[in-house]
Amino acid sequence: MLMRTDPFRELDRLTQQLLGTSGTWSRPSPMPMDAYRAGEEYVIALDLPGVSKDAIDIDVERNMLTVKAERRPVAKADDVQMELSERPLGVFSRQVMLADTLDTERIQADYDAGVLTLRIPIAERAKPRKIAIGGGSAHKEISG
């Protein structure tokens, strides 16, 4: 048997259950995210602990990136009695509007230790570049 030492955690869990705040496909829960630029790419890291790789869906439509994931209950035998259940189950989702300066055709996704990491390259057209100046005269002389 588990000892419950934090009554406030239990109260939070009960409140979440009563209010029905676990995510559904029509009303998904948010997932924590970090976003930053690292050199020539934009990185988005999303926390999805306990979610299997095949339960994650990543879509890009125009510049809208959508990540959806579902944490399903662990299958249990008939003789198992749940003593404590604090880990949220259900559907989680996050949408991010990507800038036009990102190359959405080359997004890379990795999933390791419960963290989904998306790497989005900066588009070539958005990188700074030098403009060469021509050597000739830009206008013609008019003789009169």
From TrEMBL:
<protein>
    <recommendedName>
        <fullName>SHSP domain-containing protein</fullName>
    </recommendedName>
</protein>
<feature type="domain" description="SHSP">
    <location>
        <begin position="24"/>
        <end position="136"/>
    </location>
</feature>
<dbReference type="Pfam" id="PF00011">
    <property type="entry name" value="HSP20"/>
</dbReference>
<dbReference type="InterPro" id="IPR008978">
    <property type="entry name" value="HSP20-like_chaperone"/>
</dbReference>
<dbReference type="InterPro" id="IPR031107">
    <property type="entry name" value="Small_HSP"/>
</dbReference>
<comment type="similarity">
    <text>Belongs to the small heat shock protein (HSP20) family.</text>
</comment>
<dbReference type="InterPro" id="IPR002068">
    <property type="entry name" value="A-crystallin/Hsp20_dom"/>
</dbReference>
